[in-house]
TrEMBL record, chain A:
One of its GO terms (molecular function) is ATP hydrolysis activity. This is ABC transporter ATP-binding protein. It comes from Skermanella aerolata. The lineage of its organism: Bacteria, Pseudomonadati, Pseudomonadota, Alphaproteobacteria, Rhodospirillales. InterPro entries: AAA+_ATPase, ABC_transp_ATP-bind, ABC_transporter-like_ATP-bd, ABC_transporter-like_CS, Oligopep_ABC_C, P-loop_NTPase. It is a peripheral membrane protein. The keyword Lipid metabolism does not apply. Residues 15-265 form the ABC transporter domain. Belongs to the ABC transporter superfamily.
UniProtKB/TrEMBL annotation, chain B:
Keywords: Cell membrane, Membrane, Transmembrane, Transmembrane helix, Transport. One of its GO terms (cellular component) is plasma membrane. The chain crosses the membrane at residues 32-54, 97-123, 135-153, 159-175, 210-236, 256-282. It comes from the Bacteria. It comes from Skermanella aerolata. It is found in: Cell membrane. Belongs to the binding-protein-dependent transport system permease family. GO terms for biological process: transmembrane transport. Its main location: membrane. It is a multi-pass membrane protein. This is ABC transporter permease. InterPro entries: BP-dependent_transpt_permease, MetI-like, MetI-like_sf, OppC_N.
Length: 366, 295
C-alpha cells in the first residue's frame, strides 16, 4: 500500500481554518446563552500549505490542544469553518466524517494514555486498516511490519502490549498508528513534551524523516520553542484563544513583532551567560478565558500598552495582531544576535560536543 | 548478532493477555483470595457432581428416620420427613450456586448495557437511565427482590429473575461511572480519530477496560444473591418443595430448631462458607486488579 504523493500538484492549501471558535459552557443557564462560557478558542484563522510543517505555540491554557481537537473534529466546534482540501468538514456528521479520518491523523501528547492497554501492538496498528477496510489480513500484517520498521521497531514487537514498552517506544507506536491508514495531514499535540530530552530528539528526527519520505503535512502543537524552531516552516503564536502572530519560523525567531512573541522569545534560555541581560519578564498571570480582557487580550500584561489597546481588538493582519507593531518593532527588543563568540568559549564548546557525542555513542551501544 | 537472531527466531512464549497473567501472579501471592477461590471451586464441584456424591436420594422420605441426629449412616442427620440432610445439602448447592451465578448474569446483562449507554452518550439518555436506576436503588435490595418474586410467582427461575433485576442497578451505576472515566482517556479519543464507530469503540476500547471492577463487583454480588435466594426460598418464593435448597431447608428447620438443630446448622454453615468464599475471592481480585498497587 504505497503512499500517494502527487508531486505535480501545485502547493495547495490542505487545511483552511477560518473564524474557529470553541466555547465551553461552565454552568447551566436557565435562559439559553445566559450561562458563563470559557472561550478556549475564540476566532482563529490560518491555512496550512500542503507539505509544510506549521507549529502552533503558546503557554498552557491558551487553547492550542483544543484547536488540534477541533481541526480533527474530536470536539464539536462552536463556530467557524475548517476546510480540508477545500471541503468544509465543520458541519459533517460523525458518519460523514469517518472516511476523511483516514486522511487526517493525530499524535497524542501522553504515550502512556494514548494506547489501549488491552490491545497488542499488532491490534493497535491494524485497527485503522480494519476500520477503513484496507487490504486483507495478510496485507494488513505486511503493512503493520512495514510500519514498525518505519518507526524503528521490529516485527517481533507486534505481539507485545503497550506496558512492555518505554515512553519513547510507545510514542513510536502512536506515530505508527497515526500513519497506518496513510494520512496526508498529521497533527501532533505536544508529540514530544512527555518524553525525556534525549528521546525527544529521536522522535523529532523520526517525524521529520517520515514527513520527507511519506510527503506528509504536519501541524505541531508545542510549547517548546526549541522543538518548534528545529522542525517547523511557519509558526503561529497563540495567546488566550487567539492567534497573535503567524510568520515563517526564521522571521519569527529573528524579529518577533507581537509584544507577546517578543516576551516569549526572550524567555528562551541562552547557552551564553553574557547574553542574558535583556530578558523581558511579563507581569501578572494569563487572564481567565472565562472573562477575557476587552480590546486586545494581551493589554493587561503588555509593556507597550496604550489606550486604544483596551478598547479595540486588533485583527491578525500581515501576520501579527497588534495595533502598534510597527512602532514596537523599532524599539530595541531582546537582543538575539549573539555577540562574537570568544575563543575560550568556542574551545570549551568543542570539547563539550566531543564528550557529548562519545556519551551518546556509549548510551546507544549500551 | 547471533544472540539477537536466536532470540528473534525462538518461538515466543504463548501470551494469554498481560492482564490475566499479571493478575494471576498477584492473586497467587494472596493466600486469603486463594482460599476463597478454592472454597468457590469446591462448591461448584460439589454442585456439578451432586448425584455422585450424595449418599441418598435427596427427595426420598422415610418414616423410620424422622429427625435422627447425625449417625454413621446419616452424617448430618435427617429432617422432619426422614430425608438425609447431607444429600439435600449437596443437591441444594445446585439451587444456591446457580441462583447466585445466573441472577448475577441477569443483572450484568441488564445493568452493563444500560450503564455503558448512559455513560457513553450522556445527555437525556443518561438522565433517564440514571433517574430510573436511582428510583430502583431507593428500594432496599431484598424487599424489591421479594416483591418482584411474589409478583412473578414462586419458582426458582422467577426468584433468579427477581434477584437479577434487583441487583441490576448496582451494575448500571458502576458501569456508567467506569465508562465516564475511561471515555476521556486519550486512547478512546485516538480510536475516534482513527475513525472507529461508537459500537467498535465500546466493544474494543471501553468494555475491556471497565471489565476488572465489574468482575470484582460480580463476585461480591454473587454472595449477596446466594443469601437473597436463601431468603426467598425461606419465605417459600424460591425453590419449591420437595426439591432442596439451602434457604428452604432453613425454612423447614426453623420449626424444629430445639428438637433437631442439625437441620438448621448445616445449611446455615453452607451458606456462610460459600458467601465467605465469594467475598474473600472478590476482595482478593480487587487487590490483584488494581493497577495502582504494583506489588
Amino acid at each position: 500500500m504505497a503512499q500517494v504523493v502527487n508531486i505535480d500538484a501545485p502547493k495547495a492549501n490542505i487545511l483552511e481554518v477560518e473564524g474557529l471558535k470553541k466555547h465551553f459552557p461552565t454552568s447551566k443557564a436557565l435562559i439559553p446563552g445566559g450561562g458563563r462560557t470559557v472561550k478556549a478558542v475564540d476566532g482563529v484563522s490560518f491555512t496550512v500549505v500542503t507539505g509544510e510543517t506549521l507549529a502552533i505555540v503558546g503557554e498552557s491554557g491558551c487553547g492550542k490542544s483544543t484547536l488540534a481537537r477541533l481541526i480533527l473534529r474530536l470536539t464539536d466546534l462552536t463556530d467557524g469553518t475548517v476546510k480540508f482540501h477545500g471541503q468544509d468538514i465543520a458541519k459533517l456528521s460523525e458518519r460523514q466524517m469517518r472516511p476523511l479520518r483516514a486522511r487526517m491523523q493525530m499524535i497524542f501528547q501522553d504515550p502512556f494514555a494514548s494506547l489501549n492497554p488491552r490491545m497488542s501492538v499488532a491490534e493497535i496498528l491494524t485497527e485503522p486498516m480494519i476500520v477503513h477496510k484496507l487490504g486483507d489480513r495478510r496485507e494488513r500484517r505486511e503493512r503493520m511490519n512495514e510500519l514498525l520498521g518505519l518507526v524503528g521497531l521490529s516485527p517481533r514487537h507486534a505481539d507485545r502490549y503497550p506496558h512492555e514498552f518505554s515512553g519513547g517506544q510507545r510514542q513510536r507506536i502512536g506515530i505508527a498508528r497515526a500513519l497506518a491508514a496513510g494520512p496526508e495531514l498529521v497533527i501532533g499535540d505536544e508529540p514530544v513534551s512527555a518524553l525525556d530530552v534525549s528521546v525527544q530528539a529521536q522522535v523529532i528526527n523520526l517525524l521529520e524523516d517520515l514527513k520527507r519520505r511519506l510527503g506528509l503535512t504536519l501541524v505541531i502543537i508545542s510549547h517548546d520553542l526549541a522543538v518548534v524552531r528545529h522542525m517547523s516552516d511557519r509558526v503561529g503564536v497563540m495567546y488566550l484563544g487567539k492567534m497573535v502572530e503567524l510568520a515563517p519560523t526564521a522571521e519569527l525567531f529573528a524579529s518577533p513583532r507581537h509584544p507577546y512573541t517578543r516576551a516569549l522569545m526572550s524567555a528562551v534560555p541562552l547557552p551564553d551567560p553574557s547574553a542574558r541581560s535583556n530578558r523581558q519578564i511579563l507581569e501578572g498571570d494569563v487572564p481567565s478565558p472565562l472573562n477575557p480582557p476587552s480590546g486586545c487580550r494581551f493589554h493587561t500584561r503588555c509593556p507597550y500598552v496604550r489606550e486604544r489597546c483596551r478598547t479595540e481588538e486588533p485583527l491578525l493582519d500581515s501576520g501579527v495582531a497588534c495595533h502598534f507593531w510597527r512602532e514596537i518593532e523599532a524599539l530595541p527588543g531582546p537582543d538575539r544576535t549573539a555577540k562574537p563568540i570568544s575563543d575560550a568559549y568556542q574551545r570549551r564548546r568543542a570539547l563539550y560536543m566531543e564528550r557529548r557525542v562519545n556519551q551518546d555513542d556509549a548510551v546507544a551501544a549500551g | 548478532m547471533s544472540i539477537s537472531n536466536a532470540a528473534a527466531t525462538a518461538p515466543a512464549p504463548a501470551r494469554t493477555g498481560w492482564s490475566q497473567s499479571r493478575v494471576w501472579r498477584r492473586l497467587r501471592r494472596n493466600p486469603t483470595a486463594l482460599a476463597g477461590g478454592v472454597i468457590v471451586l469446591l462448591f461448584i464441584a460439589i454442585a456439578i457432581a451432586a448425584p455422585l456424591l450424595a449418599p441418598y436420594e435427596p427427595n426420598v422420605s422415610s418414616w423410620l428416620t424422622v429427625r435422627k441426629p447425625p449417625t454413621a449412616a446419616h452424617w448430618m442427620g435427617t429432617d422432619d420427613v426422614g430425608r438425609d440432610v447431607m444429600s439435600r445439602l449437596i443437591h441444594g448447592s445446585r439451587a444456591s450456586l446457580s441462583a447466585g451465578i445466573i441472577s448475577v448474569a441477569i443483572a450484568l446483562l441488564i445493568g452493563v448495557p444500560l450503564g455503558v449507554l448512559a455513560g457513553y452518550y450522556g445527555g437525556w439518555l443518561d438522565a433517564v437511565i440514571s433517574r430510573v436506576t436511582e428510583a430502583v436503588l431507593a428500594c432496599p435490595f431484598l424487599i424489591l427482590a421479594i416483591a418482584l418474586a411474589a409478583f412473578l410467582g414462586p419458582s426458582l427461575t422467577n426468584a433468579m429473575i427477581a434477584i437479577g433485576i434487583s441487583a441490576a442497578p448496582i451494575f448500571v451505576r458502576l458501569a456508567r461511572g467506569q465508562v465516564l472515566s475511561v471515555k476521556t482517556e486519550d486512547y478512546v479519543q485516538g480510536a475516534r480519530a482513527v475513525g472507529c464507530s461508537d459500537f467498535r469503540i465500546i466493544r474494543r476500547y471501553i468494555l475491556p477496560n471497565i471489565f476488572p471492577p465489574l468482575l470484582v463487583q460480580s463476585t461480591l454480588t454473587i454472595a449477596t444473591a446466594i443469601i437473597a435466594e436463601a431468603s426467598l426460598s425461606f419465605l417459600g418464593l424460591g425453590q419449591q418443595p420437595p426439591d432442596p435448597s439451602w434457604g428452604s431447608m432453613l425454612n423447614t428447620a426453623k420449626n424444629f430448631i430445639t428438637q433437631a438443630p442439625w437441620m438448621a446448622i448445616w445449611p446455615g454453615v453452607a451458606i456462610f462458607v460459600v458467601v465467605f468464599g465469594f467475598n474473600i475471592l472478590g476482595d482478593g481480585l480487587r487487590d490483584a486488579l488494581d493497577p495502582r498497587d504494583s506489588r
